[in-house]
Design brief:
With 249 residues, this protein is α+β, with helices and mostly antiparallel strands. It has helices at 3-6, 20-31, 79-100, 106-119, 166-176, 185-197, 232-236, 238-248; strands spanning 35-39, 43-49, 64-68, 71-77, 131-139, 142-148, 154-156, 159-162, 212-218, 221-226. Strand 5 (131-139) and strand 6 (142-148) form a beta hairpin. Helix 5 runs antiparallel to helix 6.
């Protein structure tokens, strides 16, 4: 009823107390291809489903970005907005390392990004960032998995999925997350891929080495991105791993 009247700029409240442009930005996150994040005591993993503008003519869009040796992000939403935030995060990590001679704490950088997103929800003439981030990292306080959204909110998770059809992945994660805490890295990656597989639907080709990517960081493990043929060892045994998990539960 009020939507057309109160969604012309970011600073106008509707009578129901809503900011529609923020809701539109959060909808952009829901339209992006799915990403999944999981963590254990020692490692954090993200898995992303990549889209291509054309099946044959274009490469798949990048969904996972390295921020520092101990941190990285996976994105859902507008890739261009994500690149701006990624550049800012890299700059903050470099400056922190230069000044303090130590890697930046993950939660401190996440708070900065959330504050940066919040500014774009309050000042006239700007628009919210249309991208959600899953931030993984490992520092002296352990492994971390954070989610940020266009509203400026952020959350610390044990397991989470954002993007299109993310509810299917969340359903899988809700059943399995209790087992993640003490899992080794390889098993954690396979759980992330199985959750991501739930978002592909019945009509698609599923997960291939071309349309997905995985990144991991953890104890004595610098941020590492697996794409292409490097994913084969995980995808080849995924069906067997899924069968074993089903029999176990």
């Amino acid at each position: 009823m009020f939507r057309q009247q109160y969604d012309s700029d970011i600073t106008t409240w509707s009578p129901q107390g809503r900011l529609f442009q923020i809701e539109y930005a959060m909808e952009a996150v829901k339209q992006g291809s799915a990403v999944v994040g999981v963590k254990s005591k020692t490692h954090a993993v993200v898995a992303a489903l990549k889209r291509a503008p054309s099946n044959e003519l274009a490469a798949y869009q990048q969904k996972i970005f390295k921020i520092d040796d101990h941190m990285g992000i996976a994105i859902a939403g507008l890739t261009a907005d994500a690149r701006v935030l990624c550049k800012h995060m890299r700059t903050e990590c470099i400056n922190h390392k230069y000044v303090y001679d130590t890697p930046m704490q993950v939660n401190r950088l996440v708070v900065q990004i959330a504050d940066k997103a919040q500014i774009h929800t309050q000042k006239y003439g700007r628009r919210p960032y249309g991208v959600g981030l899953l931030v993984i990292g490992y520092d002296q306080t352990g492994a971390h998995l954070f989610e940020t959204c266009p509203s400026g909110n952020y959350s610390d998770w044990k397991a989470i999925s954002i993007g299109a059809r993310s509810q299917s992945a969340k359903t899988y994660l809700e059943k399995k997350f209790d087992t993640f805490e003490n899992l080794p890295m390889n098993s954690l990656i396979k759980h992330a891929l199985l959750a991501l597989k739930e978002t592909t639907g019945q009509q698609s080709e599923g997960l291939t080495i071309k349309n997905c990517a995985v990144a991991v960081v953890g104890l004595n493990q610098k941020f590492e991105l697996y794409e292409g043929s490097a994913l084969s060892p995980f995808l080849d045994n995924l069906d067997t791993f899924e069968t074993d998990e089903t029999m176990t539960t």
